From TrEMBL:
Name used for this protein in its record: Peptidase T
Chain sites annotated for binding Zn(2+) 1: H78, D141, D198
Organism per entry: Flagellimonas olearia
Keyword Repeat: no
Entry EC no(s): 3.4.11.4
One term under GO cellular component: cytosol
Coiled-coil intervals, chain numbering: none
Entries under InterPro entries matching the protein: ArgE/DapE_CS, Bact_exopeptidase_dim_dom, Peptidase_M20, Peptidase_M20_dimer, Peptidase_M20B
Active site: D80, E175 (proton acceptor)
Primary gene name: pepT
Amino acid sequence: MEKLLSRFLDYVTTDTQSDPYSKTTPSTEKQWTLAKKLVLELHQIGLQEVSIDENAYIMATLPANTDKKVPTIGFISHMDTSPDFSGKNVKPQLVKDYDGKDIVLNKTKGIVLSPDYFEDLLQYKGQTLITTDGNTLLGADDKAGIAEIITAMEYLAQHPEIKHGKIRVAFTPDEEIGRGAHKFDVKKFGADWAYTMDGSQVGELEYENFNAASAKIIVKGKSVHPGYAKNKMVNAIAIANEFLSLLPPREVPEHTTGMEGFFHVHKIKGEIENAQIDMIIRDHDAIHFQARKELLSNISEKLTQKHGDCITVEIEDQYRNMREKVEPVFHIVEIAQEAMESLGIEPIIKPIRGGTDGSQLSFMGLPCPNIFAGGHNFHGKYEYVPLESMEKAVKVIVKICELTASQIK
Ligand SMILES: [Zn+2]
């Protein structure tokens, strides 16, 4: 456990920001730097079948140390950090024995991490917090996950008295730009199921996420001199506006929570002849999700009847709720739950209002719930992680390996 902190500090000070506009994998050359470091380290702690492919996907094995027929399980985290905020020159600050008061991240810029605004801080009184210096994100998302997985594997390798089956680990590039699972070789990984270590606070355990699609509404108009436009002009902007007015006004991100779905219009552009609305559709429930897509077609039909043939709706599915893939193998959630409870950690099971790599992997044949990695306030300068939360995550990983083996007769 003593290397957990030094590992984490080493990883976060290696810039691995991904880039949504790049077409390569990994999307940024710099992700190779951390990848190569991790490959070396996996060898050093004694893992086998250590591999890195041409896209920087890393895999390794901790061999079974029991003759029992135990399922092969995996643990996965991602190497990249969010393009939303700088990950260059990360200077992590250590706050030991946190007193529950404001933490000055950056005196010159007046940046303060305060429990008045981030009340979660108060549950970590007396603990060691790792914060930023206010200029960058921290990268606990998801380098905490990497440090935890490696430390847990090292611990198991050093404690042969803990019996376990074959354990696979994987580190992926480009999760933050939605491509972390795209080139993941599920067959090569060869696990019966896995867990992403990519959640936030202690206890988080997630196996439900949104169904997600993006939609483009394209409106074609007809430009005519405004002085002579009566019964001739078709104003695409006005029709786009009418389209928006027919969407349910409360079903938007700013008015929904929990299991409530939404339409989120994030871009509009328009002239008389052409207008376009870009939106995303999100819903945990597959039937409601379908109904949302149909609503867009219905509105389009209605407006076509009124204005003539001027609207095209293009819908593209993005990801699906992993619940349907996890429910038939629900013991994989129960093992994680039991592992947490046996360590005195209360599992917090709630639907993710977003997606994870695990949802994609689940549909690729690798059921993959998500477990806490310990950090808070991801993707920005207020990101922090308590060292104690990372230690708990290490223990949860070890416990899951142990329970998976001990439950087999
Ligand atoms: Zn993450």
